[in-house]
Amino acid sequence: MPATLTRPVLVFDGECDFCRACVRFAERITAREFTSVAYQTADLAALGLSASDCAEAVQWVALDGGITSAHEAVATVLRHARWPWPIVGRVMLWPGVRDIAARVYQRVAQRRTCIVEAPTPPDGA
Q1: What is the maximum alpha-carbon separation in the chain?
Q2: Could you read off the pLDDT of 91-125 as tens digits, one per residue?
Q3: Is the peptide bond before 86 cis (omega within 30 degrees of 0)?
Q4: Is 72 helix (H, G, I), strand (E, B) or coil?
Q5: Cβ contacts of residue 14 below 8 Å, gap of 6+?
Q6: pLDDT band for position 62 (cuts 50, 70, 90)
Q7: Cα(11)–Cα(124) distance, rounded to whole angstroms?
Q8: 4-34: pLDDT as tens digits
Q9: Does the predicted TM-score (pTM) go above 0.90?
Q10: Residues 6+ apart with CB under 8 A from 39
């Protein structure tokens, strides 16, 4: 069970320029406050998440501890935004549209440019 939250939390890939730009956009259009945090620096266990889930897709942790990911997390963020974005977030979850949103999310996620190379450890490490 995630820790008691005072605001919902958006967990994203902090090494991805595209992801960081999307989070900045979400923060600009929001109507309701949320916390955004890179999964590389987040206390994932306290949020009820795993690093592999976060590496695969953006995660939204609601106040009640409910977790949504990928296109559903994006839809939730949009539903927290100012007009007209909540409509877009709702439409993304309609039957039929949901499947398209899921495929679009996966295609974008597979093609995003991320820094994935870890630094080379020193000799003997």
Answers
A1: 55
A2: 999 999 999 999 999 998 887 765 444 444 455 44
A3: no
A4: helix
A5: 20, 37, 38, 39, 40, 41
A6: very high
A7: 34
A8: 789 999 999 998 888 998 999 999 999 999 9
A9: no
A10: 11, 12, 13, 14, 49, 51, 54, 55, 59
Q: How far apart are CA 18 and CA 58, in angstroms?
A: 12
Rounded to whole angstroms, how far apart are CA atoms 98 and 71? 8
Q: Which residues are CB-contacts of 29 (< 8 A; sequence separation ≥ 6)?
A: 81, 82, 85
Q: Judge contact between 62 and 118, C-beta under 8 A.
A: no
- Cα–Cα distance, 11 to 73 (Å, whole number): 10
Query: Token match 């439409």: residue?
Result: 91
Question: In this structure, what are the phi and psi dihedrals at residue 33, rounded to the nearest 5 degrees?
Answer: -65, 145
Report how far residue 99's alpha carbon sits from residue 71's, in angstroms, rounded to the nearest whole number: 9
